[in-house]
Amino acid sequence: MTHQAFTTLLLAASLLVPGASALGGSHWRGAMHNGKFWKKSDVRKELHLTDDEVRNFDRIFARDQNKLKDLKADVEKRREDLDAMLVADTVDDKQVLDQVDVLEQARARLGKARAMMVLEMRSVLTPEQRTKLAQLRAERREHERRKGQREDAREPSPS
């Protein structure tokens, strides 16, 4: 394998590792009830969400859900196409790099659609609610970090 082919393969393989989505670090996704933070009774209570606010979140989420699923399926299809190229007997560097571009464009479309949904959801909340939600997310992140440290401490060290 030539150095260029190896470099191309290495680059493409690194892109296959699921990266953080455009909203991976936001307080709108994650372990808070499959992204539906407003469905968690404790969060709803802490934020003092009204029934109208909850209905607005449900409406926004329901409206965008199918589009997001389709965009995610497109990303997965593009990733599978790239995988198929990388396991083929012969690898055309240009075709692989073109497919990497196609995959990244699909990821960007998904990230942008998520961001647009989050921006609309954000507008439903008051500044105080947004601050409180960010605080709750930080507390949850800290809890998860500590939990991970405890699990790491329990694992036996390799001999």
Describe the structure.
The chain has five helices and no strands. The protein starts with a helix and ends in a 5-residue tail after the last helix. Mean pLDDT is 82; it is low at 5-32. With 159 residues, it is mainly α. Helix 3 (51-87) runs antiparallel to helix 4 (93-122). The chain has a domain at 30-133: Four Helix Bundle (Hemerythrin (Met), subunit A). The protein is flat, with a radius of gyration of 20 Å.
Report the β-strand fraction as a percent range.
under 5%
Integer-rounded radius of gyration: 20 Å
Q: What is the fold named in CATH at topology level of the domain at 30-133?
A: Four Helix Bundle (Hemerythrin (Met), subunit A)
- Could you say what the CATH architecture of the domain at 30-133 is? Up-down Bundle
Number of helices: 5
Helical percentage = over 70%
Q: Which consecutive residue ranges, at least 5 long each, have pLDDT under 50?
A: 5-32
Net shape: flat
Q: What does the main sheet amount to? A: none
Q: Write the element-wise H/E pattern from the N-terminal end onward.
A: HHHHH
The end-to-end distance, rounded to whole angstroms, is 35 Å
Assign the structural class, choosing from mainly alpha, mainly beta, alpha/beta, alpha+beta, or little secondary structure. Answer: mainly alpha
Mean pLDDT: 82
Please tag this protein with its features.
mainly alpha, flat, 159 residues, Four Helix Bundle (Hemerythrin (Met), subunit A)
